[in-house]
Amino acid sequence: MQPALRLDKATHPHKALTSRISACRRHRDWQLALHWLHEAESAAIRPNTIAYNAAISVCEGAGEWTRAISLFSLAVEEADVVTYNATVCACGRSAEWQRALELLRLAQEQLQPDVVTLNSTLLALEKAAEWSCALLLLAEMACEAVAGDLISYNTSISACEKAAQWEMALILLCQAVDSRQEIDIITYSAVISACEKCAKWEMALALLADVQSSFMEVDIITYCAAISACEKAGRWTTALDLLQESQRTLKPSIVAANAAISACGMAAEWQQALLQLRATGHYSLNPDVITYAAAMSALEKASQWQRTLALLQEIGRRSAKVNIICVNSAMSACGNAGRWQLAIHLLTEVRTRLMQPDVVTYDAAISACANGTEWERAIALLRVLPKAHLQLTTIAFNAAITACERESQWMSALQLLCRADELVEVSVVTFSSTISACEQSGQWIMALHLLDRMEQRCVHANLITFASAISACEKALRWPQALALLSAALRRRLRPNTIAYSSALSACSQAGHWRRALVLLLEMQECTAPADVSTMSSAINACEMCSQLLQTVVLLGELPKVALHLQN
């Protein structure tokens, strides 16, 4: 039951009402604030603008922007700039930027908005990453004699940061300096963070150096942004240098350590990742699940499955909650190392412990089966995804098709390709793996059909695709088609490798076309595709079949040189 206000006995009822409503802000008790307004109306006391402003402010603090809008509509006839500011701020905190802009436009018609109105609107735009609107508004308000302050610039820069617009963030920084704003570490941190999102590590470091030269106190947030910029650019050594620098000048932070370990992980520097993980103990830091996930990611890339599993067990011993990201890394590491049984075991463990496997979990499991040539199991796992209400992915289809390819299951690969074409965006890998499956089964017509289908779907074939198709033609003794494919690859400015040339040359050799075989050998030299023993043997065989004794002798003389070159 709500307490009674008894405004009828108060000497200054409006002042008492405002005081009671304002007291609700501390605990964000918007229901009580609305109750006081209702009590006032019941006592025939009409709340004034100040009381409404206080109630809107309580709703803003509680994140109740719709309530704030409702109260604003009641107070709009007598609304002052504070009313507008509080309502716009309520919309801003909830990222309701369209509403905030509408209120700003209304304020421009009714009264003179101030810098608080501007900043509250910019806050809404920042939370929604509407950077272009923020920049336009900042410029527009300056023309209306409402010059932005440091908060305006910081909020606009943050909007650019959220949208990864590092160049615009940098321009705003320069504008803030030109307008003689007292730039603070928040400004620089936001710009550095924008650079981080675009992997502009050199600019991030230049800004960090600028901060240090201006004797501004660098905080850990700034260091973390700079370290993350290095991580995204693969500059793991620079990331470690920054981590050590931060540890010398600031209290060590697990967030900074995580960013540095992640940088090592991105570069597959698993030894350094483990070293930094162990170093957290030296600085009395407690590694969290993010720390372990970053280290395990590095191990996964290097197929260090045993160490990955050891870290997974270590997380459990530390009583930290194992998240699905860590399990995914462990599964992927096992799969990369050909330990598909362990990957499937981990998937079973996830289900047993009532963890929620995600798409990446199943992608890792299917990829593990592909590496272990367990094509039937891979297809079975693929079928589980829709049942588990998870989105089928291109990665999952590619892995399942690869599993079929490695076991020459071209029909199954083809069926998966058709299904993938309906459900996901097929890639060159999807087609290449299917063509390779056809090649291994001698299905050259289907391989060529798939190559045509790729062109129809605007999926650009690569060297692997052409090499598989040429090999399919070679196995079927279809030398004209093999040569046509080789020419098609050259027309697309692809540089056929030794494998592609060897297949085409072998097709010519088996058909006894020794002249064409020799022409291909010359083309290989021009394309800097080194001939190997197999290529030379095919050319020799073609000459031998056609009794071209002189050419055979010459090629036999070249054979030891080729073998020696390959050994070196």
UniProtKB/TrEMBL annotation:
Highest taxon in the source lineage: Eukaryota
Entry annotated with the keyword Chloroplast: no
Q: Which Gene3D superfamilies match?
A: Tetratricopeptide repeat domain (1.25.40.10)
Keywords, alphabetical:
Repeat
Question: Which Pfam families is this protein grouped with?
Answer: PPR, PPR_3
Query: Which InterPro entries does the entry mention?
Result: PPR_rpt, TPR-like_helical_dom_sf
Q: Where are the PPR repeats?
A: 427-461, 497-531
Keyword hit for Cytoplasm: no
Q: This protein is called what?
A: Pentatricopeptide repeat-containing protein, chloroplastic
Source organism lineage?
Answer: Eukaryota, Sar, Alveolata, Dinophyceae, Suessiales
